[in-house]
């Protein structure tokens, strides 16, 4: 005859006594101690909880090993409840990473991982748009480039081109474009994204120029002037096309007005002999010094 669990019964004792009489019953071995999981027989009786006889006052309680983690039934004293899996294990929800992932520190001098707003000033043909885009693309943290001329040209029908004559319409569209750029810059900064803006800001118009940008973006704005020689500006302007190309007289006039930035206290980069890569690197070094000691403007 076979036991319900499959183990053979012991042979009968010749003395007539029941085998194992007078000895305490051996508790069943948990499945984990048997080296694997063993399914119970379909007709096996449900195992009962061991009955403990009441003890006399002052008698020591019999030793019993603590239950293994995860074993036992909930609601029974001394038996821990089974662990509850976290909600994402049940629903399959996968949390998304944060939007701005911190980058490792940048080696050598430079702005590193700082979140900052930059205003790159320069005359037409100074290369400020190209340098600003290159600097933003080479940073190791999220950085946006906002070009004032690009935002101005969002106006398709009714665009007021200053080359056709500076009037109240072109002035109003410039002010609207600056406010739009300032709003975009604040939105990027609020989300941990640096930004660099470029504009031909004149030193003889402080209220509309630097003062306006400071109001639109914030007091932490870092202005840098990009001012190569006149012959370089004229050569680069000649390579332009469309409404981005100005007359030589107008370029010379703008460049002469930009010379007023000398002595203003703002950092000035003469990129007459620099390529784009070198100018962007020098710009990053100048900005690092401005972060350490902000210019008074």
Task: Give an overview in words.
This protein has 297 residues and is an alpha/beta fold. It has a domain at 119-289: 3-Layer(aba) Sandwich (Rossmann fold), CATH 3.40.50. It has eight helices and five strands, in the order αβαβααβαβααβα. The chain has helices spanning 87-91, 128-138, 148-152, 168-190, 210-217, 230-238, 248-258, 276-292, and strands at 117-121, 143-147, 194-199, 222-226, 268-269. α2 (128-138) packs across α8, α4 packs parallel to α5 (210-217) and α6 (230-238) runs antiparallel to α7. The radius of gyration is 40 Å and the shape is globular. Mean pLDDT is 75; it is low at 32-37, 58-65, 68-73, 88-93 and 99-107.
Strand order of the largest sheet: 2-3-1-4-5
CATH architectural label of the domain at 119-289: 3-Layer(aba) Sandwich
The computed structural class is alpha/beta
Distance between the termini: 101 Å
Tally of contiguous helical segments: 8
Keywords:
single chain; 297 residues; alpha/beta; Rossmann fold; 8 helices; 5 strands
Outline the fold blueprint.
Elements: H1 87-91, E1 117-121, H2 128-138, E2 143-147, H3 148-152, H4 168-190, E3 194-199, H5 210-217, E4 222-226, H6 230-238, H7 248-258, E5 268-269, H8 276-292
Parallel strand pairs: 1-3, 1-4, 2-3, 4-5
Helix pairs in contact: 2-8, 4-5, 6-7
In short:
By secondary structure, the protein is an alpha/beta fold. It is built from 8 helices and 5 strands, in the order αβαβααβαβααβα.
């Amino acid at each position: 005859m076979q036991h319900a669990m499959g183990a053979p019964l012991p042979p009968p004792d010749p003395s007539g006594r029941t085998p194992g009489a007078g000895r305490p019953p051996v508790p069943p071995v948990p499945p984990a101690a048997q080296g694997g999981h063993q399914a119970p027989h379909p007709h096996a009786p449900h195992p009962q909880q061991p009955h403990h006889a009441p003890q006399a006052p002052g008698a020591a309680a019999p030793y019993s090993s603590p239950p293994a983690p995860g074993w036992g039934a909930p609601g029974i004293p001394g038996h821990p409840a089974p662990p509850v899996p976290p909600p994402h294990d049940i629903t399959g929800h996968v949390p998304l990473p944060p939007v701005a992932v911190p980058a490792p520190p940048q080696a050598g001098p430079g702005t590193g991982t700082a979140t900052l707003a930059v205003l790159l000033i320069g005359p037409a043909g100074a290369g400020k748009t190209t340098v600003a885009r290159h600097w933003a693309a080479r940073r190791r943290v999220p950085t946006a480039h906002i070009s004032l001329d690009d935002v101005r040209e969002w106006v398709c029908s009714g665009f007021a081109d200053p080359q056709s004559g500076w009037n109240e319409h072109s002035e109003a569209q410039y002010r609207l474009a600056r406010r739009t750029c300032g709003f975009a810059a604040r939105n990027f900064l609020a989300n941990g994204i640096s930004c660099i803006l470029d504009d031909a800001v004149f030193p003889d118009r402080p209220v509309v120029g630097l003062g306006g940008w400071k109001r639109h973006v914030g007091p932490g704005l870092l202005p840098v002037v990009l001012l190569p020689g006149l012959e370089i500006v004229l050569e680069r302007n000649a390579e332009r096309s469309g409404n981005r190309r100005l007359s030589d007289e107008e370029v010379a006039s703008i460049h002469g007005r930009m010379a007023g930035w000398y002595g203003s206290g703002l950092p000035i980069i003469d990129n007459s002999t620099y390529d784009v890569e070198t100018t962007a690197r020098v710009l990053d070094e100048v900005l690092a010094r401005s972060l350490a000691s902000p210019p008074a403007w």
